[in-house]
């Protein structure tokens, strides 16, 4: 296990983007947790939404006076091959779960659990990767409740994978899910629904002045913003359906011949499929100079790209939540997204973007055209988008909900 380096983060930094009452609520909850020590555990410090959330949540909690640590599992490629199969199985597809895969999972999780020597009052395990650690943790930290934060889309899991994860449910005291539809898949004693959120003060989401935008625009050359640009930002993962987005773009180009497409994404440290899929997508687009397949861009560049794009697409086939949608909406860029996971919670169809069925690339292309051909509509959608995210999907709101779960689980006086 290892502790990632963390940025400095003050709760006062959010005063300009969230209500004063919400910040006061956070301070009140933090006071109830001022004498406890909390541990977050996950499987990677880089790539993907979980690592991004923890990189903000942990330092803010410490600033509030809640003693909070974050440890990342140490594991090899064999383990991550297994956990990606578990992830895929929980989202509805995948290879059979073999005894060898189970043995690999149990060996690595047991070894990591044995490395935790400090005392904690509450442990938060994120996603399926650390669940195998719970037996060792509950033996050594017998008085510490276990909260499982599931970020995965559990709409239609493969039964053998659902059963494998459910075997750990009796060691979980409270499960946190991103949608109520997910909670029914795993039987835990107590559950809460907490929407994830973006952090508006990070490099990816903070305000940029004109000079910064101009610098990042130059960095993105040969992409030209003198012609329409549609962007999808997501990990290179089969569930993100970059190929479907390519199909939607090709449909839209029939009406907007000068249209350009950007497929930008990174590689999560615990996802062995990422590089291979990136290469497949790049090969599919290699003959079209108007398609730009970009990887591992700096956060400031992603920030500017989402602002400069005329529209953003998120055509996922499954999606735990899809915070890249809120990232774009926060920057007043309308989004065409699929009706899966948490995307419909973020997109108000016909108000800040459009929703389409996940396998309907033609409809996605038509909605892209509708946005590109109506400047007034894009401006109106952008204003609605910013306010919708401000109300529902910024970090202080999520942190209030998380701390309420911690207070309830630890039976503290609020």
Automatic annotation (TrEMBL):
**Organism's domain of life?**
Archaea
Q: Which residues form the Trehalose synthase N-terminal domain?
A: 40-183
* E.C. designation(s): 2.4.-.-
User: Glycosyltransferase as a keyword?
Assistant: yes
Q: Which residue range or ranges hold the Glycosyl transferase family domain?
A: 226-387
GO annotations under biological process?
A: glucose metabolic process
The answer on whether this UniProt entry bears the keyword Transferase reads yes
Keyword annotations for this protein?
Carbohydrate metabolism, Glucose metabolism, Glycosyltransferase, Transferase
Q: Name one GO molecular function term.
A: glycosyltransferase activity
Q: What class of enzyme is it?
A: transferase
Query: Tell me, what's a Pfam family for it?
Result: TreT_GT1
Report the PANTHER family cross-referenced here.
SYNTHASE (CCG-9), PUTATIVE (AFU_ORTHOLOGUE AFUA_3G12100)-RELATED
Q: Which family does it belong to?
A: Belongs to the glycosyltransferase group 1 family. Glycosyltransferase 4 subfamily.
* Known partners and oligomeric status: Homodimer.
The protein depicted here goes by the name Glycosyltransferase
Q: Which organism is it from?
A: Haloarchaeobius amylolyticus
């Amino acid at each position: 296990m290892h502790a990632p380096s963390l940025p400095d983060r003050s709760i006062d930094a959010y005063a300009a983007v969230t209500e004063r009452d919400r910040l006061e609520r956070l301070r009140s909850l933090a006071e109830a947790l001022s004498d406890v020590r909390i541990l977050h555990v996950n499987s990677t410090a880089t790539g993907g939404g979980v690592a991004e959330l923890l990189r903000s949540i942990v330092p803010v909690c410490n600033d509030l006076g809640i003693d909070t640590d974050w440890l990342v599992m140490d594991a090899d490629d064999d383990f991550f091959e297994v956990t990606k199969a578990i992830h895929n199985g929980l989202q509805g597809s995948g290879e059979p779960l073999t005894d060898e895969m189970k043995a690999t999972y149990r060996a690595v999780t047991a070894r990591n659990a044995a490395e935790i020597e400090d005392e904690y009052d509450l442990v938060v395990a994120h996603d399926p990767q650390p669940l195998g650690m719970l037996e060792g943790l509950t033996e050594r930290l017998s008085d510490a409740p276990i909260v499982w934060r599931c970020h995965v889309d559990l709409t239609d899991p493969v039964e053998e994978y659902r059963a494998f994860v459910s075997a750990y449910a009796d060691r979980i005291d409270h499960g946190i899910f991103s949608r109520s539809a997910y909670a029914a898949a795993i039987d835990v004693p107590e559950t809460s629904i907490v929407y994830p959120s973006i952090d508006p003060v990070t490099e990816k989401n903070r305000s940029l002045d004109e000079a910064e935008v101009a610098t990042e625009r130059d960095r993105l050359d040969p992409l030209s913003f003198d012609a329409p640009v549609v962007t999808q930002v997501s990990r290179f993962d089969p569930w993100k359906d970059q190929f479907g987005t390519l199909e939607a773009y090709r449909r839209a180009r029939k009406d907007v011949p000068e249209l350009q497409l950007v497929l930008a994404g990174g590689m999560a440290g615990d996802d062995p499929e990422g590089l291979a899929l990136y290469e497949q997508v790049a090969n599919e687009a290699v003959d079209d100079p108007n398609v730009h397949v970009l990887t591992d861009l700096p956060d400031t560049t992603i920030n500017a790209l989402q602002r400069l794009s005329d529209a953003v697409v998120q055509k996922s086939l499954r999606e735990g939540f899809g915070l890249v949608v809120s990232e774009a909406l926060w920057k007043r860029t309308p989004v065409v997204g699929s009706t899966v996971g948490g995307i419909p919670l973020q997109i108000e169809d016909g108000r800040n973007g459009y929703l389409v069925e996940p396998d309907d690339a033609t409809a996605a292309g038509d909605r892209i055209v509708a946005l590109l051909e109506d400047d007034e509509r894009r401006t109106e959608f952008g204003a609605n988008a910013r306010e919708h995210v401000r109300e529902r999907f910024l970090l202080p709101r999520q942190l209030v909900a998380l701390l309420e779960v911690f207070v309830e689980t630890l039976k503290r006086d609020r």
